[in-house]
What does this fold into?
Amino acid sequence: MAKLWENTYRAVNIALANELADACHSLGLAPVPVIEAAATKPYGFMPFYPGPGVGGHCIPCDPHYLLWQLGKVRQPAPLVATALAANSGRPARITERALDLLAEHAVPARGARVLLIGVAYKEGVADVRESPALEILAGELPFTLVRLTENLGKKGALVRACALADGDVLLFTDSDCVVAPDAVRTCVDALVRHPELGAVSGHCRALNTDAGLLARVQDIWYEGQFRVSKAAEASFGSVSCVSGPLAAFRREAIYNYLPAWAEDRFLGAPFRFATDRQLTGYVLGQAWRGRALKERHADSPFVRDHDYPELRWRVGYTRSARVWTRVPSRPAAFLRQQIRWKKSFIRNLFFTGAFMWRRGPGAAALYYGHALWVIAAPVLVVRHLVWAPLHLAGLLTLLYLGGVVLKGCVWGVAYRFDHPGDPAWRFRPLMSLLSCCVLAWLLPYALLTLRRNVWSRSAA
It folds into this structure.
């Protein structure tokens, strides 16, 4: 009975979350910020997030066993029965929602192309039992659905979709993200209003801040990295990474370089990382590197069928295009993600670093200054946290840690200035300490294991 209770509890709350999400959409609200606000109550609330339904061998099945047994003893359970019926109808609602989104963006449903990625019932598994995606696939849809029968990886799947897309803007998001209702339109409007822009990044925060301290620390860190760092790069039209949670690219700025992106190689081997940074690098550097890349892939239909000119595009950022992503809530998953990002940094340094100096002194100062800081961080850590204590120079260690905390406090003050009354700014100094005491050590490790291509997006 305990197992049935737990699964039924989740089934009912998932149905409630989906119904309230639909209510939010009808009222013009983004459901995720509403859920996050409700989750600030310190007791009595557990957040559930909307989705395509329920899958797996537990939640879609076990509550039905309970209803069957209750039926034998003539005990009604109308709430449970209604929730299960709502969950069963959710895949059809997702199809309706896709049609609604197409209509909102003035895209005719007939002939539209929609990519469905992630048929398994949850991320990180190959299990498709009772997956709601199967029901969506089985339906008669008025648009083209791209079915991937094998795992091509993120780049391979997106390139497959881009081969079928015929729009002027190619917009990407990640599987663990929730995009605000007006975010896509905001990004497209930015590209329409500013024809010099080749790409635009949205503004990302953490979706699962209720998952613990590590997730909350990352949320405040994300806010600063987008609100301050990307905004600074955008002032020079040279955002170095249009991040995967919400990335909008002008078709003519990246179309010819998609085969180079999908087949990227480094140190003589396929390189599976650097997806966001590398694709952004093709936009930033095509004026100097574009022709050689296209000649290398001249036989690809992406190059052969339409050769776009190599232009000196600007790359921007819009804070009003909001998206939320699930961040790692456990140390092991967080470290795996950070190692992947360090490898991305190393690979991109050899590509974008070769031409960023051509984009002007401001853009160059930000890019190379950041690169120098990342490279110097392990040296500084060894000097102040290893060498100094061994040589009885503890004051040097304290001064270093004090400076790190002070830097975090400055970032925290910037956050509080933008969010008056929000006490979350206090988490920012913790991120600075985490960066200097833990993450700085990952760069040498990432360099030594560069050829070990391990992909992890899990927020577990």
Remarks:
- The beta strands are 113-115, 144-146, 169-172, 177-179, 197-206, 247-250, 265-266, 269-270, 314-325.
